[in-house]
Amino acid sequence: MAQAVEEWYKQMPIITRSYLTAAIVTTIVCSLDIISPYKLYLNPNLVVENYQFWRLITNFLYFRKMDLDFLFHMFFLARYCKLLEENSFRGRTADFFYMLLFGATVLTGIVLIGGMIPYVSESFARIIFLSNSLTFMMVYVWSKQNPFIHMSFLGLFTFTAAYLPWVLLGFSVLVGASAWVDLLGMIAGHAYYFLEDVYPPMTGRHLLKTPAFIKSFFAEEPVVMARPANVRFAPPLVDQVPPN
């Protein structure tokens, strides 16, 4: 069993493995009272006035206490982060990292701006950790890129992946969790989906092009399609043969 888990962990792509490891370690360390969550949560005043810039990162790593909700989010983090990195972003590690950076920036900006708006500022003031929202963003992006996959929720009913974020949002409301956390993830996910998959074909402009300095941190591996063994491929058609 332990060996199987180790193999599964080693086979994870680099960003998924790093994020999952950081999230689990941070949550365990806080659960053991080695580090207080109060030193990790998003506090704009402490970031600006006391230069505690690490809070801009650590608030995405802590997933509250280790309970069923924690396991639930670790499952979604491991599953959908891995699916995105291995499929949609296969061979594009830098682009995947930039997607997460974009999502984290959008989520942070929404919370900061929302905290200054009357009538909703109280709701945003309670959102001090954005880890769940970033995970939900990945679920949303995956559902948009794979809308026709059939899924089942707890074996109760089936639906296509396009409705997965809404099903999870409804479940969160039913169990008494804050809908804002999931909604923020959906907003950030839709912003990325629109700017990456909808806007470029419409205008011919790509606003989310990954900066060169981020690409320099990652060694991109070319995607190679392996030829199956013992399979003969048909020769090209006559009109496909290039002239001499």
From TrEMBL:
Kindly report the protein's main subcellular placement as a broad class: endoplasmic reticulum
Q: Which residues cross the membrane?
A: 19-41, 53-76, 96-117, 123-141, 148-168, 174-195
Residues in a coiled coil are none
GO CC, sorted alphabetically, is: endoplasmic reticulum membrane
* Record's keyword terms, sorted: Endoplasmic reticulum, Membrane, Transmembrane, Transmembrane helix
Q: Spell out the InterPro entries in the cross-references.
A: DER1 (IPR007599), Rhomboid-like_sf (IPR035952)
Mode of membrane association:
Multi-pass membrane protein
**Subcellular localization:** Endoplasmic reticulum membrane
According to its UniProt entry, one GO biological process term is: cellular response to stress
Give the protein family.
Belongs to the derlin family.
**PANTHER family per the record?**
DER1-LIKE PROTEIN, DERLIN
Function in brief: May be involved in the degradation process of specific misfolded endoplasmic reticulum (ER) luminal proteins.
Q: What protein name is recorded for this chain?
A: Derlin
* Species per Swiss-Prot/TrEMBL record: Cinchona calisaya
